[in-house]
Amino acid sequence: MMSERASIRDVAVRAGVSPTTVSHVLNNTPGTRTSEKTRARVHAAAAELGYSANAVARALRTRRSDSVGFVGDEIATTPFAGKLILGAQEVVRQHDGVLLVTNTSYDAELENREIRELLSRDIDGVLYAAMYHRVVTVPASLHAAPVVVLNARTNDDRSWVSPDEYAGGEDAAQVLIDAGHRRLAMIGNADPIPAASGRPAGFLARAAAAGIPSEDVTVVYVSPTAGHAAEAAMRLLDRPDRPTGLFCFNDLMAMGAYNSARRLGLRIPDDLSVVGFDDLAILSAAVDPALTTVALPHLEMGAWAAEQLYVEIAARATGQPSPVRHAELRGEVVHRASVGSPPR
């Protein structure tokens, strides 16, 4: 029978365990050893009795609030990187926690205020996230909290996870090489960020490993917009020895290349194969033909960061030093219709 007044002792009797075991199970107390069978019995008994541990009392006992802060720049307000939040949220939910998301809009004053608000709520740790892969500095106000940097790197002694940009460039080149292309080009990003150097480095290395002469591989760098990419593509494609396989730094730039190819009367993929990067749903599946692209591993990075944060939270709770880890995750190639054999 459901009872709103059920106590922890009632749950213990129903599950056939001690009240201490019930407390450890329902509060996910670090360092305890309880079998999965016993944990299942406790959760089932609590559900049958309608028992819910008091959050305030639990926080006082465990010094844990079961909440994690997510401090991002514009992730929550754009359609491009929401899976960073989703991946983290799934892990936090598995830990019976709540993810508290803030959006700072690159405003340092707003960021500091939101961090103060999160810390005032005794959050267990923070995911400090960036919209795009870059080097960040974790705010001094977070120096005492467990923090994992997400979709970025830091020179501080913090754990971080980022995309493997080099591997992404390698994979883009391999898609074109596997289709038979031997004249390749890349329209890169002129901005000073890790992806702008990592992706072309991987692209050039894979082409060289395939035995393609360096004079048959061209990389140009422009501002990362569709318009600038269209101009670069026009110069690359309007020449007798034009490339037959083109890799664009991101999907938006690939859209610019599509426009230039059409203006020159080139058909994709019959005359030109194109590979993008990011896998932006609003672009990659909407252009015609649908764009083959390298997806950013946003979901996986969000999950990795949250799991690492819980490792560091548990280490702190037991007085152990927090393990610092770094990870570069490889994105998946999403094959669609923009890559074919080179023209004869």
Fold and architecture overview:
With 344 residues, this protein is of the alpha/beta class. It folds into three domains: 8-62, 434 Repressor (Amino-terminal Domain); 67-163 and 298-329, Response regulator (Rossmann fold, 3-Layer(aba) Sandwich); 165-296, Response regulator (Rossmann fold, 3-Layer(aba) Sandwich), CATH 3.40.50. It has twelve helices and 14 strands. It has helices at 8-15, 19-26, 36-49, 55-62, 82-94, 108-120, 165-178, 194-209, 226-237, 251-263, 281-284, 298-317; strands spanning 67-72, 98-103, 125-129, 135-136, 147-150, 153-154, 159-163, 184-189, 217-222, 245-248, 273-278, 292-295, 326-329, 333-334. It has a six-stranded parallel β-sheet with strand order 2-1-3-5-7-13, sandwiched between helices. A six-stranded mixed β-sheet has the order 9-8-10-11-12-14, sandwiched between helices. α1 (8-15) packs across α2, α1 crosses α3 (36-49) and α7 (165-178) packs parallel to α8 (194-209).
Count of alpha/pi helices? 12
Give the C-level CATH assignment of the largest domain.
Answer: Alpha Beta
- The number of strands is 14
> Which structural class do the helices and strands define?
alpha/beta
H/E element string?
HHHHEHEHEEEEEHEHEHEHEHEHEE
Strand order of the largest sheet: 2-1-3-5-7-13
CATH fold group of the largest domain: Rossmann fold
Stretches where pLDDT is under 50 for at least 5 consecutive residues are none
Note the beta-strand portion: 15-25%
- Identify the CATH homologous superfamily of the largest domain: Response regulator
CATH architecture of the largest domain: 3-Layer(aba) Sandwich
Biggest sheet character: 6 strands, parallel
Average pLDDT number: 91
For the terminal residues, how far apart are their CA atoms? 76 Å
**Shape, please?**
elongated
User: What share of residues is helical?
Assistant: 40-55%
